[in-house]
Structure formats: structure tokens, C-alpha cells
Amino acid sequence: MNLVTLLPFIVLIGAMFLMTRSAKKKQQAAAQMRDHMTPGTGVRTIGGMYATVKEIGDDTVTLEVAPGVHAIYAKNAIGAVLEDAEYNRIVHGAGDGLTIDTPVVPDDASSLTLDKDADKAEDKAEDEAPKLDLGKKDEPKAGEPKADASDDSEPKDGKADGEAGTK
Predict the structure, then answer these.
(1) Which of 10, 79, 96, 100 could disulfide-link to 46, CB 3.0 to 4.6 Å?
(2) Using CA atoms, how far apart are residues 21 and 19, in angstroms rounded to an integer?
């Protein structure tokens, strides 16, 4: 009878032992991977950013995230140290048959609009489109008579906004 009540606890303790053992192995493997980093190595952070290692400190690593842009990260933030071929394939597109002759982001905004006449024609068409009536009544212009009594411009209780009433 006592063995039956103790069995779930024994299984639970064994499972906890196996989980902590595998977690320790993963931590040791990650630490060993981080120790093999050298300046010039391509890495991926745990946030998914690819960068090149520039300097390695005791607890930090300086990464070049873009040409001339350096950032300091904790060593624990490095998720993977990549082989040179893999890093170049991911970051530069090398080996995919992908060649980019023009910059992805233009240097100026003039290249964003290809046909200026088409843009002007679209703007003119928008100006000529009928306006949507949202039910808001326009205020009468100077010299025009005021709207009739059915106009909702005055409150029904005869008080202006913010005017205190009496009971």
C-alpha cells in the first residue's frame, strides 16, 4: 500500500532529474559554442539578428550589425555561431543565384514615383469625386439668412453648453 502512494513521487523526482540534466547539457553546449567565437565570426542573436563579431569581452561581445554600426550585447544573447558559408548565404545571398545590382533602399525619394503625370491625374480625379455628406450642417456664411427653427444648432433646453441649470 505504501509503495503505491510513493510511486508517483518517485516518478516525479526522476523526471525532474532528467529535465535538469538535459538543461545543464544544453547550457554547457551553448557556453562552449560562445567560447569558440572569434572576431570576424558571423552570429545570430536570440532575437534573430545576424551580425559579425568585432570584439569579445568577459561577459559582453561587440557586434557589427551593419557596416560601421557596432552594438554591445551580452554573451548570453548569442543564439548561434554560424559557419562562414552559411552566414554569407543568409546575409549576403551568396550562392543562391541572387544578384542585386541596384540598392534595395533608394538614396532619394525621387525614384519612388515613376510617373508624375499619373500621380497628378489621380489627385485631380480625387478632387472631382463627389463629397460624402456626413450629416454635419454648415454654418451660414456672412449675409445669408439663418436656418429655420428645425435646425439643431441650439439646444432644446434653451441653455448653452456648460451653462448650469436649476431644478
Answers:
(1) 79
(2) 5
The one-character DSSP state at 142 is T
CA–CA gap between residue 45 and residue 80 (Å, rounded): 7
* Residue 88 burial (CB count, 10 A): 14
Ranges in the chain, pLDDT < 50: none
Rounded to whole angstroms, how far apart are CA atoms 128 and 30? 64
Q: What is the DSSP string of 36-97?
A: T--TT-EEEETTS-EEEEEEE-SSEEEEEEETTEEEEEEGGGEEEEEPHHHHHHHHH-TTTT
- Domain ranges, ordered by start, for the chain: 9-128
In eight-state DSSP terms, residue 154 is S
Residue 162 is classified by DSSP as T
Distances (CA, A) of 138 to 125, 129, 141, 151, 153: 25, 20, 9, 11, 10
pLDDT of residue 13: 87
Question: Which three cell numbers, joined as nine digits, stand for 31?
Answer: 557556453
Question: First CA to last CA across the chain, in angstroms?
Answer: 81
- pTM of the complete model: 0.44
- The conformation of residue 112, written as its DSSP 8-state character, comes to G
